[in-house]
Design brief:
Length: 106
């Protein structure tokens, strides 16, 4: 499957999952399709996620898409750590509760 098709499928799955279960389902899909990873690969991808979060944090004061990079880093981490996926789901529902209805698309 081409890379662009995989990226589109990833975002389509993420968008169609209900809020509050989105990241846990992503973690489950990732584990089901990829199976167990080599520990070095797992560590490298976790380090990439942490690096993206730190880079995005720096971009909040520097030019660049800081929030987008932070979110991508969080999703990379959530794909590998089930507790983190659960925490992101809880955070998403808490944030959605504070967003006025007119700004939501669902």
């Amino acid at each position: 499957m081409a890379l662009t098709a995989r990226i589109r499928a990833f975002f389509a799955n993420l968008a169609h999952d209900p809020p509050g279960e989105r990241f846990r389902r992503h973690h489950h899909r990732f584990r089901t399709h990829r199976g167990e990873e080599h520990p070095l690969l797992r560590f490298s991808l976790l380090a990439l996620g942490v690096f993206l979060v730190l880079l995005g944090t720096a971009m909040l004061v520097l030019p660049g898409p800081g929030l987008l990079v932070i979110l991508i880093g969080l999703v990379v981490i959530a794909a590998r750590v089930p507790r983190f996926a659960h925490w992101l789901d809880r955070s998403e529902t808490a944030v959605r509760a504070h967003i006025p209805q007119r700004f939501r698309h669902r």
